[in-house]
Structure formats: structure tokens, C-alpha cells
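Quick check before the chapter quiz. The format below is the same one you will see on the exam, so make sure you can read both the input and the output lines.
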Amino acid sequence: MNWLDEFKKTYLPLLNTAILKTGACQKRNCIDGLYDRGPGFQLMFELLFKNKNSNFQIIETGTVRNPNNWKDGNSGFLFSELIKMHGGFVRSVDINQGAVDTANQFVDQRYYKSFCSDSVEWLANLTDLNTVDLFYLDSWDVRWHDDRDSAEHHLKEFLAIEPHLKSGAIVAIDDNSRLLDSGRRTGKGRCIVEYLESKSILPIYDKYQIIYKF
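Here is the expected output.
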């Protein structure tokens, strides 16, 4: 079985259990679709396999805090399962040492390692960003009613990697929505979307996760 088949069979149903119902979304003043990550992950994996079949290099900002909590997405675990089948490595960064320790205990260290650092500083110090196939930006927690701190931090992450993006590189940003009362965009990716729109670059997927291919 290849990874796409395994993802659809085993993990997509688990991700679907985390999707919030309409009432829970409305309480947060957000449109439906909160925590609906399954289609986004599937697209990321399909894009990766369009580029190559093995040795995937993945960087994730933010890390696994609550193992097996599909509400959080379990992205680092999913990426490591991909690597287990097809080769490569996942690096993750989080400013919280407790989260880093939890992630390193939970995820198989043959395929994954989490580091404790400010994500922007950590990215700026890496010398091999031009080898990365997928950047998954998911660090600073967002407040839907006031996303400024989170959105600006994620833009700083993107600016750190932008000069090094290779052809075909994928950048995905987690935790995005629109406010129910105004329709205004809110979430971790808002400032990145605004920045790239100013350069006439649009996402190829724009829902709970926002995805670009460069």
C-alpha cells in the first residue's frame, strides 16, 4: 500500500471526526469548516508525489502537543508516517520545550525531530531551506477575533523561507477561516495571503488550510 491509500483508509476518517459542527463554528463567529484538514492534507500529499516518489524533506513550525488529538491535526505524526513509507525526514520547531519533548517522545525519531526555538530565528539559521519539499506553518496559536499576532508571526516565517523556495516547493498554512458576521479573512495565513496577493500570487487551495505551490 502506498501512502496516499494509507492516508485515505486510516487517517482521513480520524481527521473527519475532528470537524466542528455548525453550532460550534457559529459560537466562534466563524464559517463552517473549522478543523476540516483532510482535503488539505490529501492535496499536499498528491502535490508531493507529483514532484517525486521518495526522500521528502519536510519542515513544520509548531509541533505535536497532544498525541492522537486529531482536533490539532497531528501533522508531524502524519508527515513522519509518509516518511516511514517513502523516505526523507521531518523537522519541527516549537518555542515550548514541553511540547518539543512530547513530540520527540511520541513521533518515531528515525523519521522526525523537533527542536526548541523561536521558529523565525530557527528558520533564518538553516542553510538547506532550498532542499525542502513542504513547509507546514502552524506555530503561533490564533485567536479568531483578533488574529494579528499569529498572522504577523506566520508572515515572518514565510519571509524567512521565501528567498530559498525551490521550484515545486509547497507551503501550507494551518488554521484559517472567515468571520461569520463580516466575511473577513482571519487566521494564521491572513498576512501571507495579503503579502502574496500584492505580488499577484494566489493560493491553489484556500480553506481551513491555505496551500501554495511555487
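If your answer matched, good. The two ends are 29 Å apart (CA to CA).
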